[in-house]
Amino acid sequence: MPPADLDENADRKETLASIVYERLRREIITVAVPPGERLHIRSLCDRFDVGLSPMREALSRLSSEGLVAQSDHRGFAVAMMNEADLVDLTRARTWLNEIAIRKSIEHGDVAWEESVVLSFHRLQRTPRFAPGFEAERSEAWEIAHRNFHTSLITASGSDRLTRYCENLFDSAERYRHVGRMAGVKGNRDEEHRDLMEAAVARDAETAARVIKTHFEHTAELVREVLKRKLSQARE
Question: Which positions of the chain have pLDDT values less than 50?
């Protein structure tokens, strides 16, 4: 096979893997695929109409992000969710985001400030719920929410740190979806505003304090849901 054909096939596999990765990732984060569910590769290949190679690549990427668990004997499964993991996740998010936001405030320029203000404005202007679907937040709002939190830390000087924070954000989003499915309605708009204002004012202490409170308050609401589910399972 000519080298050009090999390159074309490799590009196609990478594109297919990325498409499957994004779709399956969305299903896992929104808990459309429940925690602990086995991910049978051949069944997934049939459902997404792709071959084994791009499917394995997509699952490996999800595994590296902690959304999928992999074992030698059981293959792939959606990562479990429990109170201990939520506590650990919240602690890690708080530590890393505190470092990232402090460094961004220290090193960020005017363009960074503008990106924070703009992403906050877009978040405020994006409806939380799609018309007729008030039990579930709109995908547009979720994207705006993620972009706002990312904007706060992009001037840290470390792309790797930003990626870690983004991956932890997505892991936490799974827990937020569990809370919303159970009827938990948290509105943290004021904390978002406080974060934006602290960043622009270069007030690292306030920003670090608010981000900690922001994460911990949301986690506590979800912890109560997990405790109720565990209690009901034991009855």
Answer: 1, 3-8, 235
